[in-house]
Q: What sequence folds into this?
């Protein structure tokens, strides 16, 4: 799952979808700037809550030091796609 993270966002949490050269990225707003591994952990919480999956099922696959990240979400792809489409 491709995401773009904005720190110090007015509205924390899921903020929609942004068009990208790869198709689209989910926008995730963070209320404050976080540092180190805490930032990546905080980013993973939003899909966990939005997709109703266990914390162990979401991990940063790439872009750990970049605001554009790829997250790996384990689970049934059909079910996860349906949950994303319902947002």
A:
């Amino acid at each position: 799952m491709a995401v773009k993270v904005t720190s110090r966002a007015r509205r924390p949490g899921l903020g929609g979808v942004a068009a990208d050269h790869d198709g689209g990225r989910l926008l995730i707003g963070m209320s404050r700037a976080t540092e180190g591994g805490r930032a990546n952990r905080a980013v993973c919480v939003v899909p966990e809550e939005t997709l109703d999956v266990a914390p162990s099922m979401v991990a940063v696959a790439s872009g750990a030091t970049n605001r554009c990240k790829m997250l790996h979400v384990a689970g049934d792809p059909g079910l996860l796609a349906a949950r994303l489409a319902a947002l």
Summary: The first helix runs from residue 37 to 51. The helical segments are 37-51, 77-85. The CA atoms of residues 76 and 82 lie 10 Å apart.
